[in-house]
Design goal:
This protein has one domain (2-124): Roll (Archaeosine Trna-guanine Transglycosylase, Chain: A, domain 4), CATH 2.30.130. The chain has 3 helices and 6 strands. It has helices at residues 10-18, 63-70, 78-84; strands at residues 2-8, 23-26, 37-42, 48-61, 91-106, 120-124. Strands 2-5-4-3-1-6 form a 6-stranded mixed beta sheet. The N and C termini lie close together (5 Å).
Amino acid sequence: MKAVLLSIKPEFSRKIFEGSKKYEFRKLVFKDSSVKRVIVYSSAPEKKVVGEFEIDSILEGSPDVIWEQTKRESGITKEFYDTYFHGRDKAYAIKVASVKRYKSPKSLADFGLRLAPQSFAYVNV
């Protein structure tokens, strides 16, 4: 099955697995709508694949509209959100469904990757 591996900052990946962050925000999103799973790569300083989550849905719209729809479960501040989407006309929010934290972190090589993706990478799981 095809999935996407996303690089996510450690503080945000922790919030996803704790359940306090229900949306992962992106400036660009993958085009393959058959993808229903995200593999989470916790970026520096952790640099490990720490778990995965199922995709409930992907919201698309102006940054203001997406913030209004997601702010209660965003897991981030409005200031951080505004800085991230500054100058953008479009925002994406991947809604997190069920999460699974790996008992032992995995490496990128376990998913056929040598380097962490800037945005995302398709992987087979």
